[in-house]
Specification:
Strand content: 15-25%
Protein name: SRSO17 transposase
CATH superfamily: Transposase Inhibitor Protein From Tn5, Chain A, domain 1
Domain Transposase IS701-like DDE: 33-253
CATH class: Alpha Beta
Organism: Actinacidiphila yanglinensis
Number of helices: 13
Number of domains: 1
Radius of gyration: 22 Å
Distance between the termini: 8 Å
CATH architecture: Alpha-Beta Complex
InterPro entries: IS701-like (IPR039365), IS701-like_DDE_dom (IPR038721)
Oligomer: single chain
Largest sheet: 12 strands, mixed
Helix content: 25-40%
Amino acid sequence: MNMRQSGTSPTSPGGAYADDSELLLDHYSRTIFRSLRRIDQRKWARAYLKALLHTPGKKSVRRLATAISRDPSVAQSLRQFVSLSPWDFDEVVEELTHWVAGHRPDPVWAISRAVLPKRGDRSVGVHRYFDLSSGRTLNCQLGLGTFLCVGTAQVPVDWCLHLSAAWTQDPQRRRDARIPDSEPYRPLWAQTLRLVDRLSARTDSPSSVVLVDMSDELDVGYLLHGLAKRRRDFVVAVPPHLAVQPAGENGSAPLSARTLVCAQGTETAEVPLTRGQRRTARLQTSLVRLPGGPPGRFPGTPYRLFTEVGPARAPYPLWLTSLTHHTLAEVGSIAALSTGTLEAIGSMEQHFGLRDFEGRSFHGWYHHVALVSAAYTYWRLHVLPAVPILDAAQPVP
């Protein structure tokens, strides 16, 4: 179902929105936003949440306000609540994490990027970024989101905004965007480890596997070292030029990951598609070690390198995993979840206003993505499964 074509909101396919859904939304809002100290904050949190769910098209503050009230002052109140009101993003996403944990998510933590195009240079964190998926350099904000997998749903439970050195080292920019002194420059691999640490502190999931695409990250070795140090298993897309050695040949010269794995024979494995379907994939794989590495790294840890072989013109991603004792079908199924994460981000951008934040402040951006995440999670876990009129053959946004 294309919500823009149908003219309906995410929560009301066909225009129906039952009373019991309103009661569930009230309970959900009270739970997710109970850390907000003031009654008026909780009131506007619920209003913003409901507006995100009901407003079709672009989620500007004015359009959100119009969707829930005819009072012209509502737009200013919503803008004040998101950009200036003092409430804690961390506490809200912690409640969101606990809510999702109650739905027994799979033991996979998927971390992915949201590329949010912007005009001008005033929005917090905006910078020039080469987007590998589109092959273009964009003027954008770059957010990293953590997603938990509940059945076929992938829902966001945390975010980091990437701040380039041009932002963190400019005192005037920091003042204008109200960036806290506690926010230094962090490369993408460090931001990823930060998200892993935050989710580790909020959950009791020592066996969860980290899934992340770092295929354009030159310093991916620091991420791999950090995950190994935390005893956290992973499936990571790595650059094709990553230097590796065959696991049984410690004295051999390093090769690029692409060169080594493409020299291997193919094996077949069943990997998932959407909606519970599966397909047979042809994979090339090799056990490898990483020569050298970041300072202090213990050398010699074996990993499995694998990639799919197929008719696509562009080469498939190269994946490196610590799950060396798992079958190819198992690790290939985890890697396949990355597609669902990108689809979830695309749905949040198109239907839930992820890219529509109009403010310029650091805290405002975090407040907005917390509210968008809450709206998307509510829709994905509670509304979509309860709407039988959706054709199961149709792609879910």
